[in-house]
Amino acid sequence: xxxxxxxxxxxxxxxxxxxxxxxxxxxxxxxxxxxxxxxxxxxxxxxxxxxxxxxxxxxxxxxxxxxxxxxxxxxxxxxxxxxxxxxxxxxxxxxxxxxxxxxxxxxxxxxxxxxxxxxxxxxxxxxxxxxxxxxxxxxxxxxxxxxxxxxxxxxxxxxxxxxxxxxxxxxxxxxxxxxxxxxxxxxxxxxxxxxxxxxxxxxxxxxxxxxxxxxxxxxxxxxxxxxxxxxxxxxxxxxxxxxxxxxx
Amino acid sequence: xxxxxxxxxxxxxxxxxxxxxxxxxxxxxxxxxxxxxxxxxxxxxxxxxxxxxxxxxxxxxxxxxxxxxxxxxxxxxxxxxxxxxxxxxxxxxxxxxxxxxxxxxxxxxxxxxxxxxxxxxxxxxxxxxxxxxxxxxxxxxxxxxxxxxxxxxxxxxxxxxxxxxxxxxxxxxxxxxxxxxxxxxxxxxxxxxxxxxxxxxxxxxxxxxxxxxxxxxxxxxxxxxxxxxxxxxxxxxxxxxxxxxxxx
Amino acid sequence: xxxxxxxxxxxxxxxxxxxxxxxxxxxxxxxxxxxxxxxxxxxxxxxxxxxxxxxxxxxxxxxxxxxxxxxxxxxxxxxxxxxxxxxxxxxxxxxxxxxxxxxxxxxxxxxxxxxxxxxxxxxxxxxxxxxxxxxxxxxxxxxxxxxxxxxxxxxxxxxxxxxxxxxxxxxxxxxxxxxxxxxxxxxxxxxxxxxxxxxxxxxxxxxxxxxxxxxxxxxxxxxxxxxxxxxxxxxxxxxxxxxxxxxxxxxxxxxxxxxxxxxxxxxxxxxxxxxxxxxxxxxxxxxxxxxxxxxxxxxxxxxxxxxxxxxxxxxxxxxxxxxxxxxxxxxxxxxxxxxxxxxxxxxxxxxxx
Amino acid sequence: xxxxxxxxxxxxxxxxxxxxxxxxxxxxxxxxxxxxxxxxxxxxxxxxxxxxxxxxxxxxxxxxxxxxxxxxxxxxxxxxxxxxxxxxxxxxxxxxxxxxxxxxxxxxxxxxxxxxxxxxxxxxxxxxxxxxxxxxxxxxxxxxxxxxxxxxxxxxxxxxxxxxxxxxxxxxxxxxxxxxxxxxxxxxxxxxxxxxxxxxxxxxxxxxxxxxxxxxxxxxxxxxxxxxxxxxxxxxxxxxxxxxxxxxxxxxxxxxxxxxxxxxxxxxxxxxxxxxxxxxxxxxxxxxxxxxxxxxxxxxxxxxxxxxxxxxxxxxxxxxxxxxxxxxxxxxxxxxxxxxxxxxxxxxxxxxx
Amino acid sequence: xxxxxxxxxxxxxxxxxxxxxxxxxxxxxxxxxxxxxxxxxxxxxxxxxxxxxxxxxxxxxxxxxxxxxxxxxxxxxxxxxxxxxxxxxxxxxxxxxxxxxxxxxxxxxxxxxxxxxxxxxxxxxxxxxxxxxxxxxxxxxxxxxxxxxxxxxxxxxxxxxxxxxxxxxxxxxxxxxxxxxxx
Amino acid sequence: xxxxxxxxxxxxxxxxxxxxxxxxxxxxxxxxxxxxxxxxxxxxxxxxxxxxxxxxxxxxxxxxxxxxxxxxxxxxxxxxxxxxxxxxxxxxxxxxxxxxxxxxxxxxxxxxxxxxxxxxxxxxxxxxxxxxxxxxxxxxxxxxxxxxxxxxxxxxxxxxxxxxxxxxxxxxxxxxxxxxxxx
Amino acid sequence: xxxxxxxxxxxxxxxxxxxxxxxxxxxxxxxxxxxxxxxxxxxxxxxxxxxxxxxxxxxxxxxxxx
Amino acid sequence: xxxxxxxxxxxxxxxxxxxxxxxxxxxxxxxxxxxxxxxxxxxxxxxxxxxxxxxxxxxxxxxxxx
Lengths: 248, 248, 353, 353, 183, 183, 66, 66
Ligand SMILES: Cc1ncc(C[n+]2csc(CCOP(=O)(O)OP(=O)(O)O)c2C)c(N)n1
Ligand SMILES: Cc1ncc(C[n+]2csc(CCOP(=O)(O)OP(=O)(O)O)c2C)c(N)n1
Ligand code: SF4
Ligand code: SF4
Ligand code: SF4
Ligand code: SF4
Ligand code: SF4
Ligand code: SF4
Ligand SMILES: [Mg+2]
Ligand SMILES: [Mg+2]
Hints:
The complex is a heterooctamer, with two copies of chain A, two copies of chain C, two copies of chain E and two copies of chain G.
Chain A: E1 3-5, H1 23-38, E2 44-48, E3 63-66, H2 72-82, E4 87-93, H3 94-100, H4 102-110, E5 116-121, H5 151-154, H6 160-165, E6 170-177, H7 181-199, E7 204-210, H8 214-217, H9 221-235, E8 239-242
Parallel strand pairs in A: 2-3, 2-4, 4-5, 5-7, 6-7
Antiparallel strand pairs in A: 6-8
Helix pairs in contact in A: 1-7, 3-4
Chain C: E1 5-8, H1 9-19, E2 24-27, H2 35-47, E3 50-53, H3 57-69, E4 74-78, H4 80-85, H5 87-96, E5 100-106, H6 122-128, E6 137-139, H7 144-161, E7 164-170, H8 171-175, E8 177-180, E9 207-208, H9 215-235, E10 239-242, E11 249-252, H10 255-270, E12 275-280, E13 282-284, H11 288-297, E14 300-305, H12 311-319, E15 324-329, H13 338-351
Chain E: E1 6-14, H1 19-32, E2 36-41, E3 51-59, E4 73-76, H2 79-85, E5 94-98, E6 112-116, H3 118-125, H4 131-143, H5 148-159, H6 167-182
Parallel strand pairs in E: 1-4, 4-5, 5-6
Antiparallel strand pairs in E: 1-3, 2-3
The complex binds thiamine diphosphate (2 copies), iron/sulfur cluster (SF4) (6 copies) and magnesium ion (2 copies).
C-alpha cells in the first residue's frame, strides 16, 4: 500500500488553533501542497494577516512576515521589490483585505505587483468574535449587525474579485470555495495557477476563497458548509474573473 | 439686452488661486450652477479635499468642511448620518480619491452612502508640484516619474469609474470632461443628475471629470486641452458607467 | 436608571454614552473593546441612534470628524493599534476644535503586541501622538463606575472646550464586571453650536477647517488653542488622594494600577508602613501641583504603571527634585503584583531610614 | 564625492541616503519634503535602486517594513500629517526590530495646519506617537551638512540597533541651500542579518513579527527592547555645547532654532552677556546629563523651540529644579526671531541680578 | 464590630464548562447582599476553545485590586487549571476541585481540599451541563460566601426568560453541591 | 586682522522674475570665494504664481541663523515686495529696487536706495528676461559682496550645458547692472 | 455681447479658442495680477451671445448679454 | 485505507459527510484536547482510498493509503 495522501512538507506537523470545521485549515494545506509541488519552499515568502490566520507562520514553514491589519500587500511589495526572485504571497481575511486594507490591495493590483494574494472570504470577522465584514450578506446576523445586515444602513456586500478584475494590473483573479472535495481541488488548481502567474511575472494574482466559519456564524461545521452553498455562492459566484494573458 | 450668462449665486465673487486654464474653476462653477438651479444652497454641504481645491470653501458659499487628505467621503458620511436631510457632496482630486483615499471612496460607494462625489482626474498631483498620481498615464512624465511612467514598475492607471460601477451601492457613475463647451454642458448635466440621485436617496453617486492641469503638465492651457482629448480620453472613455435605477 | 447593575466596563462605557445623549458611534472592531460597538449596535436602534461600523479606524475618526462638525454628540472607541491609526485624525479634530469622545481600551504593544491589559499608551494620549501642538483631555477611570461617570462627563467636557476627550482605560477595565449606577446627568444642555455644519440657512457659510496657510495666522490659531489648554489646566485637573495625609511614602498610579496599589497600601498599613496613593484622574491636564505638594512631605514616591515608565516623567516634572521617585512597572499584559509593590515599598522605606 | 556642492537640505538628505547604500525608498508626496522622493526618483535609476511612490503614507511605512524585513537599507520620508499616519507602522517596525530610516521634515500643525517650518512634532518623535513602549532614535540636524552626515549615520545606527531612526528637520532645513560635502563612509559593512526574510534556503524559517499572545512572553520582549533603549541611552547621546564654558545663561534649542539662537548669542556676547548654547543632536536619547551639568553652573536656561513648549519638558527633567527654565517659542510656521531671543535673555539676566 | 467581609476566588476550567457563568452568578448574588464585587475574566480569542478563568472579589469595603495574586479560594474544573493555580492559593485557602475530570492530585498540604465529583453528580441529576453549579454549590456550602437564597435569586435573574426552564436543574445541582461542600 | 566678512540679503519679486535664480547665483559665487553661504526660499504652492522671496547669507564664519530678521541689503522687483520688506531693512542698509516696475516710493531715510530701471535696461540688451541679472549687477556693483569673476563662473555653472547660449546676454545684463550700481 | 472682468481673467486663452467669430484676443497689457487679460473686440457686432466663451472660462470672468 | 490522527482531529464531521461509503464516524470518547474525534470504521475493507475525506479535512488529520 502506498501513501496517496499525506501532510505536505511545507506544513509543520502541528495542531492548529482554528475552530473545528474552519476553512482556513483547508486553504493552508492547499498552499503548502502548491509550494511542495512547485518545489519553491526555499524561495517562497508568506505574509500573514491580522485575523484568525495571524499565526499562519506556525503552520507553514516558509519564511514569513506577520503584517499589520490590512497591510499585507504593502509588506509583500516591500519584500518583492527587494527580492524579485522570491515568490511572495499574502494570506488575508475579508476584514483584513476588503475593509481596512482596501487601498493596499487595490493598489497592489493596480501596480501589477508580482505577488499572489489568497483571500479568505468568510463573510465575518472571525478573530475578534464575529463582527460584520464588508462581505457580510444582507440579513446576516453578526455581533455588530445583531438584527441582520440591512442595505439601507450599510449598503451591499463587496465583491472583491469583480472589483479587482476591472484593474489592468491584475493578471489573474478567480473565486473558489472549499465546501466540498471537488471545489477544494478546484481551489488548489487556482492557487497553483496564481503562484505560476507570479512566477511568470505576469502581474498581480488573487484567489478569493469562500470559506466556512462555523463558530461566529453560530452553526455546526456541516451547516456552515450548507450556508456557503446556499447563501454565499449565489451572491459570490465562483469562477475565473480575469485570466492571465500569456499563461502557457 | 438680457444677461444670459453670469456668475452663479452660490459662488463668491472672488478670484481663485488656480493656475490659468485650470479645470477646477470650471467644475466649481458647474457645482454652483447646480446648487442654484436646484435651489438647495441652504441645505448643501461640501467637503473640500486636500489638493489644489482645498480652498473650495473660499469659492462656494454653502457650508463646508475641509477634509484630511483622502478622507472626504468619511467626513461626508459622518455629516450625512447626522443630517440625512442635507445634500452632501465631496470634491476630490485623483491623489486624494484614487490614492490615499481609496478605501474611503470604495466603502462610501459600498455602503450606498447618500452622498455625491465630484472627482477631478487631472492625472497628477497638482497641489504638491506635479508628482505621479494613480491616474497618471503610461509614459507621462511627472516629478516622481521623471522618465515617464512605466507599467513595469508602477502598473497601470486606475480607472475609478469602471471600478466603482461594479459596486452595488453606487447608484450613478459617469465620466465627463471639461475640455470644450459641449463637454462642459454634459458635465453640468451629470453633476446635476448626481445631486438628484442623492436627493432621491438612490445611493452613492460619482462624477469623474477629466480636467486640464497645465502647470505641472508643463503645457499651455490650450495644449493641455489637446492632451486631455488626445491622451486622456482614449484611456478614460467618457460615458455613463452606472445609471440610477429609479431615476425619474 | 439610578439602580446598581452589573456590567462590564465596556458595556458601562457604552451605556453611559447613551445616557449622555450620544447618538452617533463610528468605530472598528478590536479586542479588548469590541463590546462597546457591539453593545451600541444593539442599543442605538432603541433610542434612534446611528451605529456605523467603519471600514477602518481612519475612516472612523474622520466620520467622527464629520459628525462632530455637524453638531452631534459622537464617539469612537478602539484599542492601542487602532488608536495609533487615528493620530492624524485626532490632530485634525483638535485643530478644527471639534468636540468628541475617544475611548482607548489599551492592550499590550508595541506593534500587534497582545490583547492583555496595558497602560503603554500614556505618552501617546497625553503628549500627543499626532503632529502639532495640541492636547486631548485625558480621563483615566479605575473602576467600572468611574468609567461610566467619566464617560458621561467626557461629552460635557468635549462640548465645553470644543476639544476631543479621551477615556483611557485598560483591557481589564473593559472586560471586568462591577456594579454600576447611572447618575442622572445634571444637565443635558449643550453649549451653543452656531459654528456647526447644518446647511447655511439664514446665516453665512460655516466652515470646519484646519488649514491656515499664512504662518502668522496659524500661529494665532495655535495660541488660541494654547489658551484653551491653559484653561483646562486651570479648571480640570483631577486627582484622588488616598491616605496621603499621614503618609511616609506615596505611590503614584492611575487606572487599574492604582487599584492594585490600594490593595498594596492596605497590606502595608497592616505592616505599619504608612503608604498613601496619589491617583491622577486627569492625565492631561496632569495634577503636577498635587505631586509638588506631596513631594514636600515625603522623601520617596513610587510610581506604579503597566508600562516601562511613562507617567513617571510627569511625576518627576511635578516633584521637581524634591523627593526621590522610584518606579515599578509591569508590561505587555502583565499586571503589577501588589505583593511586589509591598516589597518594593518596604525596601525603599528601609533604605531611606 | 568629497567636494563641496550646493544643495537643498532635502536633496542632501536624499543623496546621503544614496551614498549610505540605501537602495529602496517608499513614500508619498507632501510639502515641504517632496524633493526627497523627487530626487530619488531621478537618482535611483543610476545606481539600480528602487523608488516607489506608495498609495499613502500607511502603505509607505509598511513597504518599508517589508523591505527592512527583507534585509534592505530602506527609508521613507514625509512631513507632519504623513508622519502621524505612520505611527501604527512605526510602532510595528519598532516591535519587530527592523532597521530603517524615517525622515520628518516638519511643518506647522495641528491638522492640515500649514506648510511652513515647525518643530511641533518633538513629542511625537521622542515620546512615541504610536502605541506601546518603544522608542525611535531621533537625530536633529541643524545644517544641510549635518543633515547629510546624520542621514548617512542613521542607516548604520538603524542596523546597529535594529531600530527605526528618525531624522527630524523642519521645512526650512529641507528647502534651504547650503554647501555640503559627502564624507566617505567609514565602512559600508552591515551587521549580520541572518534574521531577514530571504527565502528559507538551507536554514529554518525566519519570521518577522510582533504578536506575543502570552503576556509573560510579551513582557520579556518588551524588556528586551527596553534594554536596547538603555544601550542607546548609554552610547548614543549627542549634544553640541557652544560657548557654554563661561556662560552665565544657557539657551537650549535644536535644529533650526539652535542656529537662530547662535546668532542671538553672538549679538548677546557683543553686548557683554555671556550666553551659551546646548544643542541636543539626539533627541532620543536626550542628553539629560549635559543639562544637569550646565544647570549646576548657571541660574537660568532659556529653551527656544519652534513650537509651544515640548522639548522644555525634557530640559526640565534634566535640570531637575537646579536652575530656572524659561521658554521662548514661535509656532505655526513662524520662526524664532534672534532679536526677540536677545531681548528675552537680557530680561532674564536683568531680573536675576 | 465585626471585621469587614472580604473574599477572593479564582475559578478555572475548560472553555465550555460554565466557569464564567458561576463566577458571574457569585457576584450577582453577593451584590444582592449589599457587597462590592468585581469579576475579571481571562479573555482572548475565545472562539477557539482552550481554558478559561475568572477572578471574583467580594468585599464589604470598596474593592482595591480586582486582580488577585494569591486567592483565598480556588474552584478548578480540569487538570491544567489545577496545575496553574494551585501554587497561587493562599496558605489555609480552600481548593474546590472537580474530581470527575481532575486526575492530578493537589500537591499542597497547607490548604483545605474539597474534591467534588461534579460531572457524576450532574449526570445523576440528569444534565451534564450543570457540573459547574455543583462546583459552585460545594464552594458556597463550604465557605458560606453568599446565602443560598441570593444564589437562587441571582440564578433566576441570569437565566432570564428564555432559559427559565433550566432553573430547576441548576438549582438542584447547586443544592447537591452545597450538601457536598458542607461535609 | 580684518573683521570677518558677513552679509545678508533678502531678494523679492513676482514669481517669474528670476529672483530665486539670482539668489542662488549669489551663493554659488560666494562659495567659490571660500565663504559659508545659505539660501532660504519662501516656498509653498508655487504652482500658482504670487510673489516669491529668498534670503541669502554670506559669511567668513559658519553661519548661524539662515533666517534674517533685518537684512543688510534688499533687492526688490515689485511693489508688494517693497512694501513688505522695506521696513525690515537694517539701518544704513542698501535697498536695490527695480524702478521699471516699482511705482511706490521708498519711505525710509536711513538707508541707501538704488533705483534700477532693470526692465528697460534688459529690453535694451534685447532680452526682457534678464532684468534679474541687471538687479544683481547693481547690487554687486554697489556692495562688492562677490567678485564679477565668481559671478560669471557661477553663472556658467548654473546655466549648464542646455542654457549655455544664454550666458552672454546674462553676462551683459549683469555688467550693465554693475555699472549702474557703482554710480 | 460679453463683458470680461479683467480682475478675474488670467489670460488662459481658452475663450479665445472657442469663440466661433474670433471676437476675443489677448491684450498686451499686464493686469494688476500680472496676467495678460483677454479682451473682447467686436467692432462689427458679430457676437451672438452664444455663451461658449463663458462656458469654457475657468475663472468665471465672462458675463454674456443677449 | 485511512489513518486519522486523533491529536489533530477536532471532530468537525466534515469527513464523515463526504465519505461515499460512510466509513467514518464520530467517537464518543473525548480526546485530550477536548474533542470527540473521528474514527475510521471499515470492517469490510470498502475504502477505495479516494482521498475525499482527506481533501476536506481542515486539520490535515487524515492520511490515505491505497
Ligand atoms: C488596526 C487594527 N484594527 C483592528 C484590529 C482587530 N482585528 C484583529 S483581526 C480583525 C478582523 C479579522 O477578520 P478577517 O480579516 O475577516 O479574518 P478572519 O478572522 O475572519 O479570518 C480585527 C478587526 C487590529 N488588530 N488592528
Ligand atoms: C496625509 C497627507 N499626505 C500628503 C499630503 C500632501 N498632499 C497635499 S495635496 C496632495 C495631492 C493632491 O493631488 P490631487 O488629489 O490629485 O489634487 P490636485 O491638486 O491635483 O487637484 C498631497 C499628496 C497631505 N496634505 N496629507
Ligand atoms: S472564528 Fe471562524 S475563521 Fe476563526 S478559527 Fe473559528 S471558524 Fe475559523
Ligand atoms: S496645479 Fe493643476 S490643478 Fe492645481 S491649480 Fe494649477 S492647473 Fe489647477
Ligand atoms: S458669446 Fe459666443 S460669439 Fe460672443 S464672444 Fe462669446 S463665444 Fe464669441
Ligand atoms: S477663458 Fe476666462 S480666464 Fe481665460 S482668457 Fe478668457 S476670460 Fe480670461
Ligand atoms: S478515502 Fe474515500 S472511501 Fe476511504 S474513508 Fe476516505 S472518503 Fe471514505
Ligand atoms: S474532517 Fe478531519 S478534523 Fe474533521 S472530523 Fe474528520 S478527521 Fe477530524
Ligand atoms: Mg473574515
Ligand atoms: Mg490631481
